[in-house]
Write a structure and sequence with these properties.
By secondary structure, this protein is of the alpha/beta class. Helix 4 crosses helix 7 and helix 7 runs parallel beside helix 8. The protein is globular and about 75 Å long. The structure holds zinc ion (ZN).
Length: 443
């Protein structure tokens, strides 16, 4: 009789289309058996009793900034990946910027992937960058396994990662289309944001509200419309990251209706925080595009319920607390929200419990869709021959998030102080437990 590496017994198994009681058997990093309604009769080196607990495919966070190599004083692959494990995330896609050097050529990609192989306790994948200087490097990056390419339509805030001009967009998208890859964009209008920021600051208007008003929804819409036109002109597959409003999602939806291959991400902070939080929490809750008002939050949840959003990702973009102190000018201070550990908590608390979002939908947005969209053919599902990447959660357990619960390099987050319902108990990557009893493993 077969001896498995691990059997998870008596759990409630959640996938994108079903919730069932059953056992899961794992061998050599893969799910080998899923038994619905009757126990798996086999031995195993390790057993986990998941009675009363829910088992989800491990989350795939398609948008994090771990800043390694070169800026590990902000975060790092070890601390970043341990925080993901604590949040039930089993795979991440690291963005090409905020690490130094940025991931804009093959050599830089190798530096990052070597560091990740050494330090990450969950599965790492990498975005390549599209910047005005690296069109000739895209092919190399693609052939060396980047998940896709990321460009900024407005300044990135990082000196070694330039935003793209329209000519770079056109040439880059043509090249990316020919590679069969996709382009993800930070879509905000430089002109609109710059002009408004200048106007505000010249009038001494520097509050949180002023900052938000300097980056209005129409600035996202303008950039999204423009990049969609380029997608149409070049045939390049497009992914819009961190849409902050359903009004932006609507523009993308219209393009989808016309048959364009375009998808959209939103983030937990746009689903749980508002301008009021920004006023109260300060730079801890500062990001771009900025937080919006409460009606926009509700509209985004409606968009999710209506199937208009493809992916939920954290856009974890941490920085030391010293960069998060604002004196009296909200335009100063680092923009970027530290939140990767809490994505599932927010989706469960604000989505499942507060707004009746089905668990299956949460799995679809955080695991199944990301796997499908980015070609991870053995991830995102609990089924035979899929990778044994799992999150085991207790939906009945509530807790208040405290700074000391966070495994980031810098133990702060705008979510600290929030009470979450639903707690990650165990995280499994490739059949191996990487988080249990409140502690992520050390590599
Ligand atoms: Zn980002």
């Amino acid at each position: 009789m077969v001896n498995y590496d691990l059997i998870i017994k008596n759990g409630t198994i959640v996938t994108a289309d079903s919730i069932v009681q059953g056992d899961i058997a794992i061998k050599e990093m893969k799910i080998k058996e899923v038994s619905i309604g009757k126990p798996i009769e086999a031995t195993a080196d390790k057993e986990i009793d998941a009675k009363g607990l829910h088992i989800l495919p491990g989350l795939i966070d398609t948008h994090v900034h771990f800043n390694e190599p070169g800026r590990t004083e902000w975060e790092g692959l070890e601390t970043g990946s341990r925080s993901l494990a604590a949040g039930g995330v089993t795979t991440f896609f690291d963005m090409p910027l905020n690490s130094t050097p940025p991931t804009i050529n093959k050599i830089n990609l190798e530096l990052k992937s070597t560091a990740a192989a050494e330090k990450s306790i969950v599965n790492p994948r990498f975005w390549g960058g599209l910047v005005p200087e690296n069109i000739d490097d895209l092919k190399d990056l693609h052939e060396n396994g980047v998940i896709g390419f990321k460009a900024f339509m407005s300044p990135s805030g990082i000196v070694d990662f330039n935003n793209v001009d329209d000519e770079t967009i056109y040439k880059g998208m043509k090249e990316i289309a020919s590679l069969g890859s996709l382009l993800a964009v930070h879509a905000e209008s430089t002109v609109i944001c710059d002009q408004l920021a200048k106007e505000k600051q010249s009038q001494g208007k520097t509050t949180a509200r002023d900052f938000v008003e300097s980056r209005p929804i129409i600035s996202e819409i303008e950039a999204v419309r423009r990049i969609i036109s380029y997608a149409e002109a070049t045939g390049c597959k497009l992914h819009i990251v961190h849409a902050s409003s359903r009004k932006v999602v609507q523009v993308i939806n219209d393009a989808k209706q016309r048959g364009l291959d375009v998808t959209v991400e939103t983030c937990p902070h746009y689903l749980s925080l508002t301008v009021k939080d920004l006023e109260e929490k300060g730079a801890m809750a500062k990001c771009a595009p900025p937080l919006r008002d409460a009606e926009e939050v509700e509209d985004l949840w409606a968009a999710i319920a209506n199937g208009e959003i493809n992916v939920i990702a954290s856009d974890h973009s941490p920085a030391p607390a010293s960069m998060k102190t604002i004196t009296d000018n909200f335009f100063e201070g680092w923009g970027g929200i530290s939140g990767a550990q809490s994505t599932l908590n927010i989706m469960l608390t604000e989505g499942y419990f507060k707004r009746n979002l089905p668990l299956e939908k949460i799995v679809e947005l955080t695991a199944t869709n990301p796997a499908k969209l980015f070609g991870l053919s053995t991830k995102g599902k609990i089924a035979v021959d899929y990778d044994a990447d799992l999150a085991i959660i207790n939906l009945n357990e509530s807790f208040e998030l405290k700074n000391e619960d966070l495994f980031y390099r810098h133990q702060h987050s705008p979510y600290v102080g929030m009470t979450f319902k639903g707690k990650v108990k165990t995280t499994i990557v490739g059949g191996k437990v990487v988080f249990e009893n409140g502690q992520p493993m050390k590599k």
